[in-house]
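Quick log. Single chain, no ligands specified.
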Amino acid sequence: MKSDYPNLLSPAKIGKVEIRNKTVMAAMGMSQSTDGFVNTAVLNHYSERAKGGVGAIVVEVTCVDAPLGLNTKGMLIIDDDKYIPGMTELAEVIHKGGSKAFLQISHTGRGARRAIIGDRPVGPSEVAMPYSFMMGLANETPRALTIPEIKEIEEKYAQAALRAKKAGFDGVEIHSVGYYLGQQFLSKTANIRTDEYGGSRKNRIRFLLNIVHRIRELCGEDFAIIVKLPVVEQGPDGGISIPDGIYYAKRLQDEGVDAIEVLAGKWSSEAGKHEKPESAYADCMAVALCQVLKAGIFMMTGKKKTIPLIGGGRAQNPVVSEKALAKGKCDMIFIGHGLLAQPDLVNLIAEGREDEIRPCIGCGHCIDHQLQHGGRAICSGNAVLARGDNDYTITPAETKKNVVVIGAGVAGVEAARIAAIRGHSVDLYEASGEVGGQMNLACIPPYKQHLGLMKPYLERQIELTGVRLHLNHKVTKEEILALNPDAVVCATGVIPAKLKIEGAERAVSARDILSGAEAGKNTVIIGGGSIGCETAEYLAAKGKKVSVIEMQSTLAANTGKTAQTVLLGHLKGSHVNLLTECRVEKITADSVIYKDKNGKENKIAADTVVLAIGDRPDASLYESLKDEIREIYNIGDSNAGGIIPNAVYEGYVTGNKI
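-> predicted structure:
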C-alpha cells in the first residue's frame, strides 16, 4: 500500500549512520535512573519507543561530570567506565527495536542546583541563570570556570562520547540549548569572558568546537555527532542573535558535525500578552528556524548548506511533518512529547492508524513534575510513562468479568479501556451526552485548544476496545445492583463547592460561564486557581472588565510553572484586576465586599459574580454501593484525583486490577 508520508517514512543518514526513516526521538529528561545508572525503567522506556518505529532515538540528557554537572537527582551519568555496562544494555534494546541510538551528553553548568550537587554551580562567567518560563529556573551566581577547568570539562565530554561508542551507541548529541553549559558559552550575556573563550562569536563557540574536534579524534569518522543548537536566544537576558546562530551553524558545518537539531531559547521572567503555552503551540513550530539557518548559510557563503538540519517542535502530526520535508524546510523531524504520549506513534502513522494516536495535550506536567517537584516525568495521557518500571505489558485477565464503569471522564474511560483490553465485558455509563468529563470545559479558554484533542481519542478507544457506551444515562444504585456486575468502577467526578457567605446565591459557576452563560460588563471571579484564572482570561478576551479575588498569595498555583507564567502574563496584559490574599465577605446586587490581607474592607462593582472556588468529590454513588458490591473502586475526581495525570493513572491501575 502506498504511504501517505513518503518523505517522513523514507530512509535517511546522519553522517555514516543509516536510519530507517526521517523521525528522530528528541532527548527528554525523564529523571528515572538509579544513581545515574541505567535501570529497568530506562531500558523499558526506550525499548518501547524503538519498537514503536522511530528512526533514531536520542537518549535523554546524560551528565559528563557528576556531581557538578547534574541537573536532577535521577539524571543519567556517563563520566566513568562503570556506567558502560548499563549503557551497553540500553544501546542493545534500542537497536533490537530497529532504531539507531544516540546519547545526549551535557553539563548543566550554572543551572545546577546546590541542593543536588552539594556545591556552588559553575559557568563561563559569574552571571546567575535568570528565571525563564521557557528554559529553566533562576539560580545562584555561579563560580567562573578557569581555563584549565574548561579544558578538563571539554575532555570529559569527549571521554563520555568514547564511552558511548564503547557501549555500542551510533553517535552522540552535544546538548547546547536551554540552561546547559553549551548554550551558556554561546551566549554573550551568560558568557562575559574576555579571554580565548569569550568576547566574540569565534571565541564563544571555541568550547563546542574543541569538544567536537576531540570526539572525532577519539571516536573516528563513523561515529556520528549531532549538536543541539539554539538559533536565537531572546529576551532581556538573551545573548544569541540570529546572525550569531547562523555563524555557529556554519562553524559546526565546517568542523564536520553530522547534523544540527535546531531550536531557540528565551530568557524572560514574564510572558507577554501574545506568548503561547504549549497547549496552543503550532505543529512543527521550530521548522522555520531550519529555514533561517539555510538562508543564512547561503548568504554567508553563496553556497547551499551541507549539514542536515533536524526540525520539529510539536511534530506528532504527520501531515505537517510530511509537508515540511517535501518542501525542503528541514531534512529530518524530531518528535518529543508526542512519543512520550504515544510510544508507537511512528508505527501507527505508517499503518494508517492516525486516529488511534494518543495526543500530547501540551499540559507541561512532564517537565513540571521533574524540575518543580523533583520527580520523574509524568503524562496526562500515557499512564505508564515513568511510573514504576515503564512496563507496557497488559496481561489478559484470568477470570472474565462483567464490569460497570460510571463516568466517562479521563479516569473512567481509561479504566474501561484497560479492563476491556484484558478481556472483560465492560459497560460505561455517562450522565451527560458526551465523553471527556471536565476536559470538555478545560479546552474552552484561550490557548487551551490541544486539550480538546483528548475527546476524539477517548471516543476512538471506546470503539476499538468494544466498550459499550451509554450516554445521557445517569445510573442509580438500584439499577447497578439489578445489573449484578462482578466489578464496579465509580468515576463520577465532582459537584460544585458552596460558598457560605451572604449573597452567594447571586453567583454563577465557572462551569456555567465556560458552557456559554452570559457575563456582565463588570465580572468578579471568586477563586484564583487554574479554573478561576482561565475563566478570567476567557472573559477578558470577550471584552469584559474582570477582577479575580484569591485567598492565597499565589494565583493558578495548581498549574504547571510554564503554563502558570504564561497565563498570568496574559491576565496582566489584558488588565485583569488580580487581588490576592483577600477574603470575600458578601455579595450584593451590584458589588462584592472583600477584606484585604490587612483586614481593610473593600468594595468592587460587579454585575456578574463567578464562583471558581474548587469542586468537591462526588463519591455519593460509591458510598451507597461500597457495602453492596464485592469489588468496587472509586477513582478520578470523585476520589479527589487532582491533576489529569493522576486521574488517568488511577484508571489504568484500576483497569489492571479487575
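The radius of gyration is 26 Å.
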